[in-house]
Amino acid sequence: MITLKVIGAWAAFALFHSVTMSGPYERGARRVMGESRFLAYHRLLFTLYSAAATAAVLLYVRSLPDIPLYRIDGWVSFLFRGMQVLGAVLLLWTPWDLKEFVGLRQWERHRKGEEEAQSRNERLFTGKGYGLVRHPLYLGCSLLLAFHPVQTRNSAATAAAVIAYFYIGTFFEERRLTRKFGEAYREYQRRVPRFLPLRGGRS
């Protein structure tokens, strides 16, 4: 029952996060805010309420009764830590602009009266980590979560729910990217695997 509560909490977060990333939501936000304010503030607002929702779920999960699940010691723990290091390396190897990602750079450009520049998100980048898998940030975070050598019931349920959301989310994200980049993205899909660095694309 507790495990279902943990998974349900993360499922609610996934629904909230997916809705606030959807095309209809963004189109509505553009109408309400206006194009200029949307470009300046929307990403920052999205970051803030996503962070608040994440904190709320984490606090809720922390409030639930929990029990130890496993603790891996000895040489096997080094294998687990090694996989986590690989996840961290993948995150570092994947180029992304943190200030652009959270929306601070867009706000700064608006405050300075600068024109909206083309960000990395507006270009199809296929180098570095994106040449290994199509979603290296998701894979890197998944390795950190899945290979933690100490897990409780609730932390394991959280890791499973978040990793599942990452993977399911790739399908929705790729539909958007295909609409945006067309044949260039379809060719990228044929060359590079989706989530695991296995041979062939489309996985």
How would you portray this structure in words?
With 203 residues, this protein is mainly α. It has one domain. Helices cover 70% and strands 3% of the residues. The protein is built from nine helices and two strands, in the order αααβααααβαα. A two-stranded antiparallel ribbon has the order 1-2. It is globular, with a radius of gyration of 19 Å.
Summarize the structure.
With 203 residues, the protein is mainly alpha-helical. It is 70% helix and 3% strand.
Helix % is 55-70%
Q: Radius of gyration, rounded?
A: 19 Å
Our count of helices gives 9
Query: How is the quaternary structure best described?
Result: single chain
Order of strands in the sheet with most strands: 1-2
State the separation between the terminal residues, measured CA to CA: 33 Å
Shape estimate: globular
Q: Name the average pLDDT.
A: 90
Structural class: mainly alpha
